[in-house]
Amino acid sequence: MSGNTGGTMDTMDQNLLGQEADAWVDAHKAALSDWCATIFDFAEPAWREYRSADWYVTRLRAEGFEVEEGSGEMPTAFCARWSKGDGPVVGLYGEYDAVPGNCQAARPEPAPRDGVSWLAAGHTDPHSGLGIGSLGGLLATKHVMEKHGIKGGLQFTGEPAEKVRGSKPIHAAKGYYDGLAAMLSFHPFYMLPLCNTVRWDTHCGAGWSMIYRFRCDEAHLWGAKDGAPIPQSHSDIRAPGANDALVMMYQTARTLRDSMLPHRGGWSVSEAILSTGQATADNLPGLCADLQYMIRVPDVALAEQITGMLDRVADHCAAMTGCTVERHWVSKSRPGLANHAMARVVWGALQDVGAPVWDDGALDVMRQVQRACGVEGVADPLIDACTQLVAPEEAEAILRRDLPPSQSHSTSDDYTDMCWHVPTARFYIARPALKGGPYPAWAMNALGGIPATIDPMVQVAARVLARSALRILTDDAARQAAWDEFVARKAEADIPPLCDYDPPVGFGWPEYVDTPRGRGWHIPG
């Protein structure tokens, strides 16, 4: 077994440890709230989370952790470790990337954050609450371990670029999850039935992402003819260039999308155009253009199939426009691996803690958001599921109603790469979601940043994580059951790491810049 010996606590001792973890969270509510608001306001997008990562590194070092910055050769990733003697090591992690085009202030009306436009990045899930909830659970666990002399260790990884499934396949391939006794994966959620529950059998599927880079390096050869007074003159003929190749692929792939995979399986393909800074509309061909795709599919075979079709489209579009094309990987994440023993540990902790509770002040803020959206505020603005627990088996049964029997996974998220290295539990705590919609995106984003509305989720997540981690650290039987199940399930269908690429940090990912004009939002070349 990976890791180790610990001392088994009886039920009374487990309750005591949990209560002391709860007490730590209660005593640090104000700090957790401030920390969450800080990361929300940073709102840095994938691969460019400089201030967010630096904040976590500084905080973790202040808490006594040894921190490796730039883990996995990713500048905004990190790996923090702390131990109290030999024993099992439990892993937790934070995400902190935001989404371009979702800039929203922590206010109950549509408004960008001060100093930047609505086109800037903002937290949508929100990863600000995810990371601080996980950090709170980590520090509460450490406090109880120190108080009671519990042997073992904690690892906390900083996971950038989750929105493009970025860091976890790389961390996995480079061994950062190896040797852990357990991994606890928390995410804010509101989409039924996965609200205040733990995933059971149907985990997230594969998430593959790539960039097709079109290059027009030999524009002078397009339409070249003998005797031209000025070869490739502006008045003669012009190469179509990389922008034309990109547009052609964008349109062609969309046209063919219905033919790429069977009409089943819950798959999707999304695209994003990465600018290369060509801001002058001169009569010259575009030299370089990047088109990113994200593929969400249940399994690796379907990911490979659709990638092959996109490759074919890219090759033909390049040939028709006199360009070359390169495919660069952003992510190749594996589908998830269930672990019922781990799910039971977390479900027990969630039952002990209970669902989030929002006070009258928070409910009033939600009603203000409703009115700003043209919906008359109601006495109870929350959907019922936000304040209810759903047993993992019940959530599984509801989830399966809309899936074909042959489909083993649904949606995508790169926590799945952890599942092949360590027993993993994936659980969800409700973020506030309103009745009476539909609502514009700003409403959900605002509720994810306003302290009164997001803090209850952060605190519940921290308590559940701490109770679960302490159980794994101190209960030999529970830890062994999780490990035995992990070994058995992995033996049935082991998928080795798929990451065979360097971290894709050098592309034109959007980011903030500081200039004499001030701090602003920029899409770099």
Structural description of this entry:
- The protein is α+β, with helices and mostly antiparallel strands and 525 residues long.
- It is built from 13 helices and 13 strands.
- It has helices at 11-27, 29-42, 50-62, 127-148, 167-173, 241-256, 300-320, 340-353, 360-372, 392-400, 441-447, 451-474, 476-492; strands at residues 66-69, 78-84, 89-95, 152-159, 182-189, 197-198, 206-215, 268-274, 288-297, 324-333, 424-430, 511-515, 518-522.
- The strands form three sheets. Strands 1-2-4-3-5-11-6 form a seven-stranded mixed β-sheet. Strands 8-9-7-10 form a four-stranded antiparallel β-sheet.
- α1 packs antiparallel against α12 (451-474), α4 (127-148) crosses α12 (451-474) and α6 packs across α7 (300-320).
- The longest helix has 24 residues, at 451-474.
- The mean pLDDT is 92.
Question: Quick gist of this model?
Answer:
This protein has helices spanning 11-27, 29-42, 50-62, 127-148, 167-173, 241-256, 300-320, 340-353, 360-372, 392-400, 441-447, 451-474, 476-492, and strands spanning 66-69, 78-84, 89-95, 152-159, 182-189, 197-198, 206-215, 268-274, 288-297, 324-333, 424-430, 511-515, 518-522. By secondary structure, the chain is of the alpha+beta class.
